[in-house]
Amino acid sequence: MLALLFLFATLLARADQKWSIQFQYNRDQSVLHIVDFRCPSIQRCMAAGILEKNGKDHQGVVVLTSDGGKEWSIVEVKDLPISMYFLDDSYGWMVTDKGVWSTEESGRSWKKMEGLKKGILRVHFLDRAHGYAIGFPKAILETRDGGKSWTKLREADHPSSIAEDTAYEWITFWGDHGVILGRELPKRFDPRPIWADPSPRSRRERETTTITLETTDGGKKWESSTNDFLGHITRLLLRKDMSALALVEYEDYYKLPSKVYELKLGSKGMLTLFAETDRAVTDLAWFPNGDAVIAAIEPPGPSNQLPIPGKLKMLHSINLKVWMEMNVDYRAVAQRAMIAAPDAQNQWVATDTGMILKLVDTATAKK
Predict the structure, then answer these.
(1) Range of 48's domain?
(2) Beta-carbon neighbour count of residue 272 at 10 Å?
(3) Rounded CA gap, 38 and 215, in Å?
């Protein structure tokens, strides 16, 4: 009974909240594709994107705020961004198509780092000196001097997969506990995207080799394992009790666009938390109080692979069992959405269509 009352009270509180647009790129002859989004503090957020001009020219940009989203500015960068990582609200890194850049000024200016070229997909730093860069072919690099020099992690080669077909794509830490995820990229004999294939059912989702590297001592020792897995693990969020949330997305024909799992690292069991045919999940956030939020897209047609933006859907849960849809500005559409939340009270989401929304209390805003 108390649990039901608590759930009811939470729903009433959420009824006065709305995901409202704070930034929307809307200029003639150009479109903004946001590829990654970070909010390391309640005041500072950074969105890395690619500006497409006249349908052909491309310019890398970073969209910035230093006042919690009241004002946003756009800074041009030399390369095309892929991902970002921020250690705090000043010090961060940006992976691009031609290397890695660092900033000490919250993204207002960037400096090219030596020793990292094409193929890097993500970086993660434990402090200003110790960090990792991951990507392909089968690449995990480590630095202990702030990026002045990099060495390849020996354990990256331990899994028995073809190096040219293997990419490490996700890295996360909770204290000294860290996980790096990779996979042997599926071989595609048909270069057409699945939505352009007249017989998409022939391209069913198949198992691929998923690679996991895990450390429990801050990277001094890594253990590797491989599993044949259906789908692509695109997000993994850790907790101190060795539990984790995993987002699995399906790239070929499958009955679902995505699933969210809860799992205990080291065990084989996985509990499905969210799986809906009309909600393609692209990101999630998990807060210390147990609350979780997922960003999903409502597919505009029978396939979640159609190159057409669908409506942005945000869902919230206080127990990882019941998921409630939140109020979202009706204009928000996307193919992918990225959550950035320094805490449960300050949450943002960015779309690949050039929008940034914040969760606001509408009752307070009216006063």
Answers:
(1) 2-366
(2) 11
(3) 25
Place of tokens 């949450």: 347
Q: State how far the Cα of 243 lies from the Cα of 267, in Å rounded to an integer.
A: 10
Residues 6+ apart with CB under 8 A from 138: 156, 157, 161, 163, 166, 167, 168, 182
pLDDT over threshold 80, residue 299: yes
The whole-angstrom separation of Cα 343 and Cα 171 is 20
Structural tokens at position 69: 């989203």
Higher pLDDT, 35 or 161: 35
Q: Is 334 within 8 Å of 326 (Cβ atoms)?
A: no
**First-to-final CA distance of the chain:** 34
Question: Amino acid letter at 105?
Answer: E
Contacts of 198-201 with C-beta under 8 Å, sequence gap 24+, read 200/252, 200/253, 200/303, 201/253
The two beta strands, 327-328 and 333-334, are unpaired
CATH number of the domain enclosing 74: 2.130.10.10
Looking at the predicted structure, is the pLDDT value of residue 126 above 60?
Answer: yes
Distances (CA, A) of 225 to 8, 53, 141, 158, 209: 43, 44, 18, 9, 10
Q: Which two tokens stand for residue 15?
A: 């009824």
Sign of the CA dihedral 313, 318, 290, 183? negative
Q: What is the rounded distance in angstroms from the CA atom of residue 141 to the CA atom of residue 238?
A: 22
Per-residue pLDDT of 79-100, as tens digits, reads 999 999 999 999 999 999 999 9
The answer to whether 122 touches 93, Cβ cutoff 8 Å, is no
What is the domain count for the chain? 1
State the pTM of this model: 0.90
For 2, other C-beta atoms within 10 Å of its C-beta total: 6
Specify the range with the lowest mean pLDDT, choosing from 124-128, 248-252, 275-279, 290-294.
248-252
Write out the two tokens for 9: 């009270």
